[in-house]
Amino acid sequence: MIASASVAGTLYDLEYLVDTDGRRIAAFGYWAGYAGAAVSALALIAQAKGEICPPIAPMQDAATLRAAIAPALSALPQPPRVIIIGAKGRVGTGAADFCRTMGLAPTLWDMAETAHGGPFPEILDHEIFLNCILAMPGVPVFVPHTAKTTPRALRVIGDIACDPGSDFSPIKVYDQITDWVAPCAPRP
User: Fold this and answer.
1) Taking the complete model, does pTM exceed 0.90, yes or no?
2) What is the CATH code of the structural domain delimited by 14-159?
3) What is the pLDDT of residues 127-180, one digit of tens each?
4) Which of 172, 174, 115 shows the shortest CA–CA distance to 139?
5) What is the distance between the alpha carbons of residues 27 and 15, in angstroms, rounded to a whole number?
């Protein structure tokens, strides 16, 4: 029998791991965007039923995931309008691919569309907003705190970048992280 010793570890935020040229070498990727878009679709489907998104279970593969979501998504009265900011990056590409395979035509924004610094009322005209950017100094606010009381179509924010506690978060309507058991923050 081998005795084990308790070992303390250190958790590093690998998003900030860079090479000698300052380029990130560890970051969210394609499948984070794909899965984040899928969870956002599930959240909208649950809302349409007057529910909150249930816990997320592992899926065998992307085809199984799509097959599980497709019937409920097609049963919605109309396809949701989706806007993706950060659409040219790894995460945004995955989110856009999920949307397209589900028959949705996402609005694709990247740095050029947000360069004017806002406000961005177009975001509120979509039912789903997928945030796929790296939040850093100078990033404009995409969804201000006032959006909570503004007339809007927006029902689901898939903050795949997920940094609500950061001073640089472009989404100012929530301050909680979610997890697989509770994938949606409660409404304010």
Assistant:
1) no
2) 3.40.50.720
3) 999 999 988 888 999 999 999 999 999 999 999 987 777 788 899 988 888 888
4) 115
5) 5
